[in-house]
Amino acid sequence: MIEIDRLSENAHRMVVIAEFRQEDAEALVAFAKERNAAGGGGNVLIDVTAVTDFTFSAVAIELAHMPSLVKWVYGLDRIAIVSDNDWVRTGARLESALLPGVVYEVYAEDEADVARVWVLEQSKGPHTGAIKQLDVGRPGITAFELSGRLDREESERGVALVRKLLEDSDSVRLLLVIRNWHGFDLDRLLSREVLSGKLEIARKLDRYAIVGGPEWLRRYAEFTSVFVKAEIKSFPLEEQDKAIEWLAG
């Protein structure tokens, strides 16, 4: 089943629930044709977290009306995909990268509110606010929390924030708590501000603890400790207190 709602004059939301059937595909095609007739444009939030399957008849309808659907998609200004399926999120990012003019921002289910705000054009960027400072009640420890997805802008903001706090204090120990990790945009790796800032931070630190996040990320961070003076150690999310004690020791 598909539900299509108007969020604002310039934005719509589509929610696909359970099985996507022929009548749902027909409703989607009708909506696309209506928007094309109105001049196209606008933003759309597509939530497929509750979809379970699709029928071949639905696919046949979409294929038969592909020109109308493509025209509608290419005319959109913002497209947000909300899904907890890795293959859906990966496919959307690949399509966004490979097809000029088609730009998707991809969100997990716990980021649905962030996606809605972006589609409504009420935020500066699609994934802002992923990094925030934490107070762990220990002098000499600077702490941050990362939740969500890191794009280039947020990475640059986060690195600048850490650098500023380390400069304004005598802290040489850093704690990063990662919750709800949703990856990062590859173009952040090309940012001079991110690269130079991380090097400057690494030169100042004595100890750096990473709590939570995927295991490969924690293992990679520990591996990089052989190239810097700081001790780097990772902990599972449930061992945040243990990480704080290690930093304080």
Keywords:
30% strand; 42% helix; alpha/beta; 5-stranded mixed β-sheet
Q: How would you characterize this protein structure?
A:
The strands form 2 sheets. A 5-stranded mixed beta sheet has the order 1-2-3-4-5, sandwiched between helices. Strands 6-7-8-9-10 form a 5-stranded mixed beta sheet, with helices on both faces. It is 42% helix and 30% strand. Helix 1 runs parallel beside helix 2 (56-64), helix 1 (22-37) packs across helix 3 (66-75) and helix 6 (152-167) runs parallel beside helix 7. The chain contains 9 helices and 10 strands. The chain starts with a strand and ends with a helix.
Spell out the blueprint of helices and strands.
Layout: E1 2-8, E2 11-20, H1 22-37, E3 43-54, H2 56-64, H3 66-75, E4 78-82, H4 86-98, E5 104-107, H5 112-119, E6 131-134, E7 141-150, H6 152-167, E8 173-184, H7 192-204, E9 207-212, H8 215-224, E10 231-235, H9 240-248
Parallel strand pairs: 2-3, 3-4, 4-5, 7-8, 8-9, 9-10
Antiparallel strand pairs: 1-2, 6-7
Helix pairs in contact: 1-2, 1-3, 6-7
